[in-house]
Amino acid sequence: MPHPPKQVQQLADLGFSPLGAGPIDDSRPIVAGGKVEAFGDIVALASPRFVVEVGSWEGRSAVLWGNALAQTAGDWALACIDTWLGSVEHRQIKTGEWGIERLYLEDHCPSIFRTFASNIRRAGMADNVIPLPIDSPQGLEILAVSNIYADLIYVDAAHDYAAARADIAVSLMLRDETNANALVLCDDFHPAWPGVQQAVRECAAASFARLVIRDGQAALLSKRADAIADALVARGWTEEKVFSAGKPSGGSGAEREVIQRLTADLRVEQHRAHAVRVERDRANAALVELDALRSTFSWRITAPLRAIRGALRRR
Fold it and tell me: What is the pTM of this model?
């Protein structure tokens, strides 16, 4: 009998659980089913079981990933990171898929999560999809400091260069090192989003990743996954050379420094998180001891003396 990926329990320990059964709002937009050839290729060749999606919106790509993952043997899980609050585009466009009306404002706040949840439940994937309602920098940081790694990280969040680069750089660090086929896949790799293209190319060069592209989807694969990259090319993907002779092209030293700095910063944050957990455990232990002391007879009998001493100090 298949078992859920271990990351499901790790997320549960942090308070994130599968969406589960619940209401379906039929008044909300219904995302199309079907499949994306690029997703099918990745699942068929890399066999991911735990996928992190950075940017989920109404659930369209989550459903498409679910359709592809459901074709594989064994259990799978998809963690979806999104604020479900919309983006700049939704405040500038009045109508259509990217218009402000799709925010479904209720008491001034977007209610897009209801659309997402309805689509996931309608697709029968509520037990496999784990929502993380938080922005991508914090969501990825939670995974990093909690040592939660993925077989595949799908980046489809902000489209400006700085945000896309930050998301991709951290996502590269979240690849499961025990899985040689772990990879990062980035959406919207086309001229309409030059910031995304620049971010993808720079991160691929800095991490010495092979970059293969199909239909606006850009896969970054480590050298350990050469067989996967070659198989993708054989299936019609296009490889873009971002480095030569083992070194990135154009400013390779600066790119390596960026990755090294990000890695160092991440390690510092991991140490800080560990220190916070240690202090929290100490505080909890002290509270337990204090509660035990308060329940003793000597603590109760000396209560009036402590009250008098406190009053004298205040004077």
Answer: 0.77
